[in-house]
Amino acid sequence: DQLFHQDILRSFIKSLGYDAQPMNEAEALAYSELLEDGLTGISMSCGAGMMNVAVLSAGDPVVQFSTAKSGDWIDKQASLATNMTHSIVQQEKESPEFDLLNPDPTNQIHQAISVYYGNLIVYTLEQIAYDLAKSPSLPKFKDPIPLVIGGGTSLPTGFIGKFEQALEAVNMPVAIGEVRHAADPLNAVSNGLTLAASME
């Protein structure tokens, strides 16, 4: 339960003499990766359990939401499709030989992982387009905005390329200027939290 854990952590940090304020993962990612863009753009934190998305305009998080599919879902679906254990699928997914854009045609697990990654990316992009289109608080951006991505689920070779391919087929309500990977995808959220705290 997110609310329970948030409250427990807030109480603990407060007991140490600090003022703890919760921040969405995607907003924290923006602080790490969108400072040079005036904290304006879309940030997407790809975790194991969910995708967290935020749209920021000059540092103001105008739209934030999460989707329930992410890395664990890929592992589960590929495991069912190949009749392999989750741990074997995860090991293959994290292998340096795995390339999302060019999966080994002789490796059934790589093929399955690639299929479900593709499905996840399309699903996430469609959710982003849907949520942005229905949001009354979405500003009219003068110029195309960047989309930055971080988190462990974004680590496989070819992820950004596959994401860009899928993005071309989705009708986004905002113009995307570039898609870029966080400089340090695994630590970008914690880096962003540190930066945000230092700016308070």
Features:
200 residues; alpha/beta; Nucleotidyltransferase, domain 5; five-stranded mixed beta sheet; 7 helices; 5 strands; 45% helix
Kindly describe this structure:
This protein has 200 residues and is of the alpha/beta class. 45% of the residues lie in helices and 16% in strands. It has helices at residues 2-15, 25-33, 71-82, 86-93, 108-134, 159-167, 188-198; strands at residues 41-46, 51-57, 60-67, 145-150, 176-181. The longest helix is centred in the middle third of the chain and has 27 residues, at 108-134. It is globular, with a radius of gyration of 18 Å. It holds the Pfam family Volactin. InterPro entries: ATPase_NBD, Volactin.
Compact overview of the structure:
With 200 residues, the protein is an alpha/beta fold. Helix content is 45%, strand content 16%.
**Measured distance between first and last alpha carbons:** 28 Å
Spans where pLDDT lies below 50 across 5 or more residues? none
Percent in strands: 15-25%
Provide the domain count.
1
Order of helices and strands: HHEEEHHHEHEH
Q: What summary fits the major beta sheet?
A: 5 strands, mixed
Q: Provide the CATH top-level class.
A: Alpha Beta
Q: What is the general shape? A: globular
- Any guess at the CATH architecture? 2-Layer Sandwich
C-alpha Rg, in Å? 18 Å
The helicity comes to 40-55%
Tally of helical runs: 7
Q: Which fold name is given in CATH as the topology?
A: Nucleotidyltransferase, domain 5
Please tell me the overall pLDDT: 94
Structural class: alpha/beta
Number of strands: 5
Give the strand line-up of the largest sheet: 3-2-1-4-5
CATH superfamily descriptor: ATPase, nucleotide binding domain
